[in-house]
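wait is this the right file?? whatever heres the structure
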């Protein structure tokens, strides 16, 4: 029961769409109806500039990292920490606060529906990685920056980063709970990245 309650709490915290108030405050725009409509850092950057993008990135990472750290401090249970982290990523990608609005979209426009219900989850996933495997956070960011800034392929950056993370965690000898939870986050995020296929941007 404790794990279920922690999972629900993680999901609710992860579902907070920080991009909505940040972009509105900094630009006056509604990020949900501007650009791609996605409530993540990338669309925030497009709509409201670099400051908004960076701020949303940090906030989205913290909404998994802080609950995970608090759970670890309170319960010292790695499985509980993992449940909170994975639930936060799920909440970001499929926000309970955005689901009702998304029901207005016809199902045949499922890719647009997936944009409306949350962000892609990469920043929140990086929060999970930073808590569980901090040694991987900077190298993964460097790889992502190379794809995004040098090759101009931000979707490919996200795909490579999140796919490499659980493999790297496993090869570095982290326990099953760690690399499996990162893998679970990767699967959730990949379901959102798929709507960007064939990754042209």
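ok assuming it is, sequence goes like this
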């Amino acid at each position: 029961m404790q794990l279920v309650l922690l999972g629900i709490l993680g999901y609710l915290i992860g579902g907070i769409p920080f991009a909505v108030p940040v972009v509105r405050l900094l630009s006056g725009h509604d990020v949900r109806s501007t650009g791609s409509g996605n409530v993540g850092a990338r669309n925030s950057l497009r709509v409201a500039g670099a400051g908004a993008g960076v701020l949303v990135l940090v906030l989205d990472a913290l909404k998994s990292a802080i609950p995970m750290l608090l759970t670890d401090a309170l319960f010292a249970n790695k499985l509980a920490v993992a449940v909170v982290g994975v639930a936060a990523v799920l909440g970001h990608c499929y926000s309970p606060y955005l689901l009702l609005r998304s029901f207005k979209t016809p199902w045949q426009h499922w890719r647009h529906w997936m944009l409306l219900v949350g962000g892609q989850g990469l920043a929140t996933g990086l929060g999970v990685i930073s808590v569980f495997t901090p040694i991987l956070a900077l190298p993964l960011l460097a790889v992502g920056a190379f794809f995004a800034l040098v090759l101009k392929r931000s979707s490919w950056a996200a795909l490579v980063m999140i796919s490499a993370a659980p493999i790297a965690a496993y090869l570095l000898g982290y326990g099953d709970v760690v690399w499996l939870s990162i893998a679970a986050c990767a699967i959730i995020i990949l379901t959102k990245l798929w709507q960007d296929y064939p990754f042209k941007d």
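The chain has a mean pLDDT of 86. so i think its the right one actually
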